[in-house]
Write a structure and sequence with these properties.
With 353 residues, the chain is of the alpha/beta class. Helices cover 43% and strands 17% of the residues. It has a domain of 238 residues: NAD(P)-binding Rossmann-like Domain (Rossmann fold), CATH 3.40.50. Strand 5, helix 5 and strand 6 form a beta-alpha-beta unit. Helix 4 packs parallel to helix 5, helix 6 runs parallel beside helix 8 and helix 8 crosses helix 10. The relative contact order is 0.13. The chain binds nicotinamide-adenine-dinucleotide. It catalyses: dTDP-alpha-D-glucose = dTDP-4-dehydro-6-deoxy-alpha-D-glucose + H2O.
């Protein structure tokens, strides 16, 4: 349908991307949503099983590091908007393999900017290039204070340094070429469909299986947790109504010390599984702290609230309870993503097309 607006979402088969694709495909039937994803270990088409047959959804298996392949996709569809989420996203993996993070997060973002710029020429009216980023670019806080949109960047892990680099390049394309860019920096997300290497699904999975619960250091690091569906709602607002050239911080005003969060998860799981109170807490095992582990992240999300009226839709207790229920009800998903069997299946599928 030539009258439909083509919107590119990169990384749509991942955790946050799949929630965003679901929201956009459902809420905007007059958009054609093109999901561009390489399907790394973190990308799982199964995450979009419920919407993949909708007429306004298309999948393109592309590696954003491959500039030619990215250009071809921009030639095939005349995109009016880009929402870029594809990234290597796990800090621990960036410590063991930094190079892949620079390639995907920095070079990949550059390739997308260049493809958009070539495809749009100098006609930027009604165009948006939206880069989804993290609060980790701001570095680490002490016990006090918050990250604001104008907090100086101070990334400390290869992951956050790669995201900071890409933010800077996106902003440079705004100032230098007038590209219509938007950036958001969000705190830690939790929810369904998150790869179980990340804290919350890892703990849920291990509690269920009575396996040790590894907690870094003494568990004193503080993170601000936001329900992934609320992040997707914020992205929708910023994409449509945020100001070009601006940054928006997104957060839940919901700070937890890791150890307190793990305790809460243990108690929630004991209750939901009908186990004796205190059972899961016995599984907690303190492990050597992550190298360069940032102490505390906390977002001031006043700007997005005042300008766009966005606030989280659920309390942490509600969001966490829904999340635990989802992992308990989707045992097969958990088994399959950890064993890599979906990945192999879809690898074959898409290779043979
Ligand atoms: P994720 O790891 O679950 O998903 C990343 C997706 O990107 C996967 O589908 C993967 O296949 C795809 N991808 C990776 N490399 C690619 C490449 N070279 N080409 C094409 N696709 C590729 O990540 P997530 O947690 O959903 O994060 C999405 C975005 O949001 C990232 O940019 C991340 O930096 C940002 N972010 C995440 C959080 C969080 O708490 N998870 C918080 C703030 C910001």
């Amino acid at each position: 349908d030539l009258t439909m607006k083509n919107i590119l979402i990169t990384g749509g088969s991942g955790f946050i991307g799949s929630h965003l694709v679901r929201l956009m495909v459902t809420k905007y039937p007059d958009y054609n949503i093109v999901n561009l994803d390489k399907l790394t270990y973190a990308g799982n088409p199964e995450n979009l099983k419920d919407i993949e047959d909708k007429g306004n959804y298309v999948f393109e298996r592309v590696d954003i590091v491959d500039a030619d392949a990215v250009f071809k996709v921009f030639e095939k569809y005349d995109f009016s908007g880009v929402i870029h989420l594809a990234a290597e996203s796990h800090v621990d993996r960036s410590i063991s393999n930094p190079n892949e993070f620079i390639m995907t997060n920095v070079v990949g973002t550059l390739n997308l900017l260049n493809a958009a710029r070539t495809s749009w020429g100098s006609n930027f009216s009604d165009k948006v290039f939206y880069h989804v980023s993290t609060d980790e670019v701001y570095g680490s806080l002490g016990d006090e204070g918050f990250f604001y949109e104008d907090t100086a960047y101070d990334p400390r892990s290869p992951y956050s340094a790669s995201k900071a680099s890409s933010d800077h390049i996106v902003r440079a394309y705004y100032h230098t070429f007038g590209m219509p860019v938007k950036i958001s920096n969000c705190s830690n997300n939790y929810g369904s469909h998150q790869f179980p290497e990340k804290l919350i699904p890892l703990m849920i999975n291990n509690i269920k299986k009575n396996k040790p619960l590894p907690v870094y250091g003494e568990g004193l690091n503080v993170r601000d947790w936001l329900w992934v569906v609320d992040h997707a709602r914020a992205i929708d607002e910023i994409f449509h109504r945020g100001k070009v050239g601006e940054t928006y911080n997104i957060g839940g005003h919901n700070e937890w010390k890791n150890i307190d969060l793990v305790h809460l998860l243990c108690d929630t799981m004991d209750e939901k599984l009908g186990r004796e109170p205190g059972t899961a807490r016995k599984l907690i095992t303190f492990v050597k702290d992550r190298a360069g582990h940032d102490l505390r992240y906390a977002i001031d999300a006043t700007k997005i609230k005042n300008e766009l009226g966005w606030v989280p839709s659920v309390t942490f207790e509600e969001g966490l309870s829904k999340t635990v229920d989802w992992y308990l009800e989707n045992e097969e998903w958990l088994e399959n993503v950890t064993s890599g069997s979906y990945r192999n299946y879809y690898q074959d599928q898409y290779q043979n097309r």
